[in-house]
Amino acid sequence: MRIFDPHIHMTSRTTDDYRRMAAAGVRAVVEPAFWLGQPRTNPGSFADYFDSLLGWEPYRAGLFGIRHHATIALNPKEANDPRCRPVLDLLPRYLDKDGVVAVGEIGYDSMTPEEDDAFARQLALAIEHDLPALVHTPHRDKARGTRRTLDVAAESGIPPGRVLVDHLNELTVEIVKESGCWMGFSIYPETKMSPPRMVEILRRHGPERVLVNSAADWGHSDPLLTLETARAMLDAGFDADDVDRVMWSNPVEFFGQSGRLDLSGADQPEPAFQGSSILRGGS
Amino acid sequence: MDAYGLLDVLGQDWVTEARAEVARRPGAIGRHFASAGRRAGRAPLDGAPGWRADEAARALLLAALPPEDLTERVAVLYAEGTADEKLAVLKALPLLPVGAEAVLLLRDAIRTNDARLLRAALGPSARHLDQAAWRQAVLKCVFTGVPLDGVHGLDERADAELAVMLAGLAGERAAAGRAVPADAAALLDRLTQQKEARCASSTRTST
């Protein structure tokens, strides 16, 4: 089974996670820029973070035969901090880069005017840089937040087929499906979405335009819940093609719209330096 | 291989056009440099051993920059670069009229834990590194498993102090039941033999 995790914050995960993910069949990941738990206080802090998403992380992933791409944006939460707003001016040079396959995560956290502005400006940047958009939906007031997300996306002029609306559940899936946007589901150990609930949603709505991710980060999360969901699909009677569509072909199709997805050698560990110290545990 | 040879082997028209634009308007290099991977591809170049297509395209863009401000522009592209972009800058250094100013880039690359950058920093431009920094970089190659065949002029520059450092690492490894890579053990052997030969000759002279 091949797995493409379209939303995982590897910066917060250990090298041991990469090893377990590779063994479980994860061959490609997309790491969206988000917040880090500790608020940042200046744009330089973001630049170092973005550089890491395009430098160190792809290298670290490559050592385990996992292809790593990123999405870049000022996240909704920190868009509210005036000290972080100048990050918007840094974005154009990052959005030109090869490893960047979407603008994201953008969208709403608390639905403030500052978030409205950052969301609209970054949707415009997605259009300008010919990139899809990865849109986070709020954890509080989710249904109304998702509705507003779809309205703002439609208003921007970006085609719905180039928008992935993430962290959906039973109450938000329908309106996103109707909008023509792609539907993302984050499988978490306790919150957001579970494998059995995900299977039920797939049964009801089908696998078209559906992406499943672990959204694993520094919180209580598990990078192997994509695999567990795939197994739950098989147990529930979905065939291997359905599983492959959700776990591989759909993310490839969505992020492939960037023209920057490079999956060559997606199952080959970097051959040159097998003794490299991060594999061995040195420094 | 010089820039013209590389251009010939790469054989991509867009690079020729982008180089002309960069020569006229150096500020145009940013977007070309950032998108070179998806435009050129990443396949190894048959006619240019050690070069991938994207690296060659980026090196050729850098080589098209006018000499004024070249060092500053190269430094910014490196500083703001992805790992692939940084690697291309390091590989391009021998093709560019950048002198000792390259040291800051080399030192940055050597500080990273990206084996590709470390290896690239020890190419011909490493002549600008002082001996202490160069020895530490070579030792880091051994420590992190980067093959020494990429170290430019290894035997000419390896000295008695490097031999002491390699012997120390080999001793630590032996204590842990591990070996140093074969190329490092071989280098240590050569350095030890040279030292013994020198000692023998100085003993003969003194008696």
From TrEMBL, chain A:
One Pfam family matching this protein: TatD_DNase
Entry keyword set: Hydrolase, Metal-binding
One MF annotation (Gene Ontology) recorded for this entry: hydrolase activity
InterPro entries: Metal_Hydrolase, TatD-like, UCP005295
Gene3D superfamilies recorded: Metal-dependent hydrolases
Family classification: Belongs to the metallo-dependent hydrolases superfamily.
Keyword Metal-binding part of the UniProt annotation: yes
UniProt keyword Transcription regulation, yes or no: no
Listed name of the protein: TatD family hydrolase
Source organism per UniProt: Microbispora corallina
From TrEMBL, chain B:
InterPro entries to which the protein is assigned, alphabetical: EboA_dom
NCBIfam families for the chain: EboA_domain
Name the record gives this protein: Sugar phosphate isomerase
Naturally occurring in which organism (per UniProt): Microbispora corallina
